[in-house]
Here is the input.
Amino acid sequence: MIEETINKLEERVRAMPGVAEAKREELATLVTKLKAEVDALSKTSVGSAERIARFADLSAIEASCKADDASARAKDLSIEGLSASVDGFEASHPRLVSIVNQICNTLANLGI
Here is the structure.
């Protein structure tokens, strides 16, 4: 389940319309790092790893939607959900939190 979700996320990032190639590559690199961290987390906390993977995928889905007021709110909520899904992991998984924060910041800097 987690691997499938991360694979879908990788596909969505590579196919994001209207995003410069350099930014897509930056996001793809972050997703690769996220994949490694979520894989490690899944060995100890499957539920948390699945939740993080789903929110990351949802954020990518929302990022590729055409902008309107409804989708802007959905994008905000998906990014908030992604950030919230890693709450409490700062001490035990600092790299995971850092990667998720980088993904959120990159999406925010793209206006997503």
Observations:
- The chain has a mean pLDDT of 81.
- Residues 2-109 form one domain.
- The CA atoms of residues 64 and 94 lie 28 Å apart.
- The longest helix spans residues 21-42.
